[in-house]
Amino acid sequence: MAMIAHKCKDHTVTVVDINQERIDAWNSDTLPVYEPGLDAIVRAARGHNLFFSTDVDTAIREAEMIFISVNTPTKTYGVGAGRAADLRYIEKCARKIAEVSEGDKIVVEKSTLPVRTAESVKRILESNAKGRKFQILSNPEFLAEGTAVQDLEAPDRVLIGGSQTADGLAAIQKLVDVYAAWVPQEQIITTNLWSSELSKLTANAFLAQRISSINAISALCEATGANVDEVAHAIGTDSRIGPKFLKASVGFGGSCFQKDILNLVYLCEHFGLPDVAAYWNSVIEMNDYQKHRFGRRIISTMFNTVSDKKIAVLGFAFKKDTNDTRESAAIYVCGDLIEEQAILSVYDPKVSEAQMRRDLNLAADDPRLTVCTDAYAATKDAHAVLILTEWDEFKALDFEKIYDGMHLPAFLFDGRNLLDLDALRAIGFEASGIGRG
Ligand code: UDX
Hints:
Elements: H1 2-7, E1 13-16, H2 20-26, H3 38-45, E2 50-53, H4 56-62, E3 65-68, H5 88-100, E4 105-109, H6 117-127, E5 134-138, H7 148-153, E6 158-162, H8 166-179, E7 188-191, H9 193-224, H10 228-236, H11 257-270, H12 274-301, E8 310-314, H13 329-339, E9 343-347, H14 353-360, E10 369-371, H15 375-379, E11 384-387, H16 399-404, E12 411-414, H17 421-427, E13 430-432
Parallel strand pairs: 1-2, 3-4, 4-5, 6-7, 8-9, 8-11, 9-10, 11-12, 12-13
Antiparallel strand pairs: 5-6
Helix pairs in contact: 5-6, 9-11, 9-12, 11-12, 12-13
Bound molecules: uridine-5'-diphosphate-xylopyranose (UDX).
Uridine-5'-diphosphate-xylopyranose binds next to helix 9.
């Protein structure tokens, strides 16, 4: 929404939430989300044509177009628990819009949703229409965290789905006009509602599948002495495969991939396609395998025990340039090591101690975790160093100094293939990466 306000100065954008604390944060000097470049855009537009408020009703009444951007977490209860998307927040929004609106509205689904959710939103709105007209559009977001501003400035494409009726097409055109302020027309794709909803789930499933595929090969590389980065480069030069999203890692995380694939799996089962469901589910199974395989490898390399050993963890976010830890591989690796009675000291440039303790289910005074403010303090007196997030600053660390402060043999496990293992071995580290024999 900040980008729309930034690019379309003649439109007024009001972001509303029932959470006062969050709205206060958006109105303050410290935004609640760390995202490179976002501060500048918000600061420039805030108070001019970008507003943050808790007055939901007024914002609905005054808006011509309403974007629903609420959470759609995986359901934790009842039918479809652990797989289906929890749509209660979407439904509450639809009911609120129906209750408060005085005139016609275009309602845009921005949240990632199961296919045919628009149908439910439409039914709720239409059965309460009382003469007003509602058009539902699907406009999934493809930005990635850490590069959000860049991705929004120059998206590969913008996708807009809507009903193929005269009113539907007119609503689609209104949203096309918003994006056309900065996105070339040929990159704005319009489809029917269901294609748009399904494309978002499919895009994330394909991206995650590439990572699981290269991670599967990384296990074979370790067994055979091949180097997964060399394999990725060799296959990535085939223009049909392409070089992106082939970086072997300790496993993918983030708020989208797992949730969206689980959702896709659930949909396939619901529509009577168990083989298709099993196919996509294996992408998640491979990711789980990769996360736990990393922990098992650490333990077996360190003489089959990490009990009472200090393990330094560099990086806790699910990727670099974000403070987001949702589904981060670090949570699983740290959890496995704590289970084996290791003592962890963690450094991440952006993740707070409170967040790490929440993620690992550890009380504030639990001595199994120490959170440090720099990598040297975290690695002092450690038996092993793990790289779990690919922060650029880790490449510039003085590893001779780190080595000098560690117990010997000094183990280093690079879960991101970020570092030069040969240079580390020359210092004296027993260093290993992912998929490098
Ligand atoms: C993803 C999609 O990229 C984006 O289009 C969608 O809108 C939301 O979900 P995001 O989760 O923010 O974005 O980050 P992404 O860059 O896709 O990375 C996801 C995870 O995959 C991270 O944990 C990352 O480290 C991992 N990853 C990514 C790899 O392990 N290897 C790769 O080659 C790429």
